[in-house]
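thought: user wants a sequence for this fold. calling inverse folding tool.
action: design(structure=
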């Protein structure tokens, strides 16, 4: 606002009066706006409660008790009907849930039975093939032991023939041929024993070598059959110890 230089008293008085009137109108407008805001909040709250279906008495003070009860009775009837409908739906849902639980229990029981049958079948197959493999392995080891025993017998006969030939070359009389006895092989696999002439000192080295080779081969087969895991050094010491004991006897 432009201030006029050297104003008169009348102009100043009119200006002050106008300012006071505007201030009063502004205060009145503010009060009206506050009241309108309060009324709008109350109307909004009432509308919210009306939409929720609950007609409260404190929002219907303008109506008489008869009119209020008349409007409230249909609403109560509709709410009761809705409650009955919801209860019926809940009962049906409960029945469906129980049926689903029973069906699920039957399915799980059938699955468990099937899984147990499959597992038992697999275990039976495993036991069957394990027994077959063990029988086949025992048969192979027995065949190997029989073959090694036959080879040892052949080596013994060859050594006897060589020893007799060496004696004949040295001009000695050949002793009568001794037939080595071959005992029956049972499930414990009794090894074949050979009879050598212990009277001749020249043949002691050859006899020990042949006997040691035969015992090593047969003991190796027996170790595999019994499942023993012995170190080669310990096995060698045991073999030489047994040979020393037999020679001392």
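)
observation: tool returned 249 residues.
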């Amino acid at each position: 606002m432009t201030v006029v230089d050297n104003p008169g008293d009348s102009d100043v008085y009119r200006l002050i009066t106008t300012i006071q009137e505007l201030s009063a109108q502004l205060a009145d407008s503010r009060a009206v706006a506050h009241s309108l805001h309060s009324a709008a909040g109350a109307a909004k709250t009432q509308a919210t409660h009306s939409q929720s279906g609950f007609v409260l008495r404190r929002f219907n003070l303008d109506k008489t008790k008869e009119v209020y009860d008349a409007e409230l009775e249909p609403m109560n009837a509709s709410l009761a009907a809705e409650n009955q409908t919801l209860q019926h739906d809940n009962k049906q849902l409960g029945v469906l849930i129980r049926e689903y639980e029973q069906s699920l229990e039957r399915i799980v029981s059938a699955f468990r039975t099937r899984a147990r049958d499959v597992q038992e079948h697999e275990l039976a197959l495993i036991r069957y093939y394990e027994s077959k493999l063990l029988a086949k392995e025992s048969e192979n080891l027995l065949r190997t032991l029989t073959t090694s025993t036959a080879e040892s017998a052949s080596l013994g006969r060859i050594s006897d023939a060589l020893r007799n030939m060496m004696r004949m070359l040295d001009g000695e009389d050949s002793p009568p041929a001794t037939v080595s006895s071959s005992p029956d092989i049972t499930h414990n696999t009794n090894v074949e024993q050979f009879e050598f002439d212990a009277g001749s000192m020249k043949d002691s080295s050859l006899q020990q070598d042949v006997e040691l080779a035969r015992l090593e081969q047969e003991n190796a087969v027996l170790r595999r059959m019994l499942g023993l895991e012995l170190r080669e050094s310990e096995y060698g010491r045991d073999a030489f110890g047994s040979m020393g004991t037999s020679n001392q006897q």
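thought: summarizing for user.
answer: Here is the designed sequence. Confidence is low (pLDDT under 50) at residues 1-5, 177-202, 229-233, 242-249.
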